[in-house]
Specification:
By secondary structure, the protein is mostly beta strands. A hairpin with a 5-residue loop joins β1 and β2. It has no helices and 16 strands. The protein is globular. The strands form three sheets. Strands 4, 5, 8, 9, 10, 11, 14, 15 and 16 form a nine-stranded antiparallel beta sheet that branches. A five-stranded antiparallel beta sheet has the order 3-6-7-13-12, with no helix packed on it. It has a two-stranded antiparallel ribbon with strand order 1-2.
Length: 222
C-alpha cells in the first residue's frame, strides 16, 4: 500500500480516511484593532480536539472546544477552514475550498442546535461548492452540552468538475472565531471590540489563509 507524507511531515497510509488529533489548550489569540496577543484564559474559541472523516458519501468535520457558549445578540462562536482537494476537483483556478459554519437563533432569540454552513471557492470567495440554504445534505449541528460542532458536507460539494464528481482525496484545516458581531466568521466587524481565534494543529496568526493554515494529511474516501 502506498504511503503519503502528512501535514506535519510524518507518514500516513494512503488509504487513510480518518484523522483524529487533539489541539493544545490555552492557545487562543485575541485580535483587537489589528494587534494580536495571546489569550490563554479564553475558552470559547479554544479548540480541544478535531475528528475529520472522509467517507464514500460525505466529509464530516467534528470540532470540540473547551467551552462552546450559546449565541446571543452580540456574541457567537463559528467554525471554518480550508479544504484542499486533488487537481481535478479544484474550483477553476482556485487551490481549493473555504467552508464556514455559524449558529442560528430562533425568532424569539432562543438558541437552537441548528446552524448554517457554506462552501466557497477559497481564493476569490465565490460560492461554487454548496450551502445548507440550498442543499439539505449540507448540515451543521451545535451541541452545547458536549462543546461540539459537527459539519457534514456531501462529497460532490467539493468538486467543480460535475455534479457526479467526487474528490479523490481531501486535506482539511479547522479554525474557530469567537466574534462579538454575531454569526460572522470572516467579514465586517467592529474594530473596537476584540475577536478571538484558534487554529487546530498549529498557531493562529490572527489572519488565516490557505498558505498559513494547518492541514490534515490526505484523507481518501473509505
Amino acid at each position: 500500500m502506498g504511503l503519503d507524507r502528512g501535514a506535519a511531515g510524518g507518514l500516513s497510509r494512503r488509504a487513510a480516511c480518518r484523522d483524529t488529533r487533539s489541539d493544545p489548550d490555552a492557545d487562543t489569540v485575541e485580535v483587537l484593532e489589528g494587534d494580536v496577543s495571546a489569550a490563554p484564559a479564553h475558552r470559547e474559541a479554544d479548540i480541544h480536539r478535531v475528528v475529520v472523516r472522509h467517507t464514500n458519501r460525505v466529509l464530516m468535520i467534528r470540532t470540540w472546544v473547551r467551552e462552546l457558549t450559546l449565541p446571543s445578540h452580540d456574541s457567537s462562536v463559528a467554525v471554518g477552514g480550508y479544504i484542499k482537494v486533488d487537481r481535478s476537483s479544484r474550483p477553476g483556478k482556485g487551490a481549493g475550498w473555504y467552508w464556514n459554519a455559524s449558529p442560528l437563533q430562533r425568532r424569539d432569540g432562543s438558541p437552537t442546535v441548528a446552524g448554517k454552513v457554506h462552501v466557497y471557492e477559497a481564493v476569490h470567495g465565490r460560492i461554487g461548492g454548496c450551502s445548507s440554504n440550498e442543499d439539505e445534505r449540507a448540515k451543521v449541528r451545535f451541541d452545547y452540552a458536549r462543546d461540539r460542532v459537527t459539519v457534514i458536507l456531501p462529497r460532490d460539494c467539493l468538486s467543480s468538475a460535475s455534479m457526479d464528481a467526487r474528490p479523490r482525496w481531501v486535506r482539511v484545516s479547522v479554525f474557530t472565531r469567537h466574534s462579538l458581531v454575531p454569526y460572522v466568521l470572516d467579514g465586517a466587524y467592529d474594530p473596537s471590540r476584540p475577536d478571538y481565534y484558534d487554529s487546530a494543529w498549529g498557531p493562529h496568526s490572527g489572519h488565516m489563509d490557505m498558505e498559513s493554515a494547518h492541514f490534515t494529511p490526505r484523507l481518501h474516501p473509505g
